[in-house]
């Protein structure tokens, strides 16, 4: 369809959808003006080759979860010039074409009439899903609907939106799951209209839409329950006014155990472990010295009296020029993906402005894709790897 691009994601180590894609490839290609897909680096080689030979624009990414893959494909799709985008999990799309291609074609034609269109399931389509899906998704959809003030089914794995909406999503999306986050970004932050259309084509076919690996019945329920909780919490928190944060200069005699825990937490978030943390006392002494030089740069972050984060900001020389340097952005896991990162970033920018700094740097682990994505959304760019490839130096400019 004119001006509507497909953006989709795929993680299929076994290649279970290969034969179905080959059979439906020409029909997929005929439906959209452009096709964008992010593929996990664990996806079946033969399936990857089939996609490379198709009309898809392809980006291979590390397996970092559905939310990461979805954000990557939005950014990828924005490299084109389409006015509207249809996001759909790839297995869902093939199922839809198989079940009711005419309906899908009508939906694509309707997309330009909406800012953001939630594509939900009719009762018949919803009832085709396993019991553990229906029971938990009913709860998720109920919570989202209470927050929006309108009944919707947001857990079907597909939605559509304008290019303007996609830019808001690109800028603000950071949650662990995007099903409720994206429409709430559009509703609460962009102030744009979220509509819904129910369809029959989003039925469940076990061979296509089922689990990629065998798990017990009880584990299936646990997995779906976890998803329901994460998506439901996101529906409540996304785009709501944050509680004000307080920034207090670190006092190592008071904050010693907290800064050690937070700094080790940053190692775990970046590298998956804290084995390379080094000597605790050396770190505490280093912080004490930096506090004397930059009392407003080395700070604890408080929300309602609770320590939820830590910042380490300084000014230093780099290639004979003074730059700002971020040693640490840290938020406790419970506050990540809720907009607090932007508050910390804004504080850092004000710190550098007060020191008359025009350029700032930081270093990040190459596998910390969520952090890299956050930094890029805030205008930073990668420079080059350092420390034998263990980190990437990034830079940004104060505007």
From TrEMBL:
Keywords carried by this UniProt record: Acyltransferase, Transferase
CDD domains tied to this protein: NAT_SF
PROSITE patterns in alphabetical order: GNAT (PS51186)
Top-level taxon of origin: Bacteria
Domain N-acetyltransferase: residue ranges: 245-399
Claim: Ribosomal protein is one of the keywords in the record: no
GO molecular function: acyltransferase activity, transferring groups other than amino-acyl groups
Family annotation (Pfam families): Acetyltransf_1 (PF00583)
InterPro entries named in the record: Acyl_CoA_acyltransferase (IPR016181), GNAT_dom (IPR000182), YpeA/RimI_acetyltransf (IPR050680)
PANTHER family per UniProt: ACETYLTRANSFERASE (PTHR43420)
Protein name (Swiss-Prot/TrEMBL): N-acetyltransferase domain-containing protein
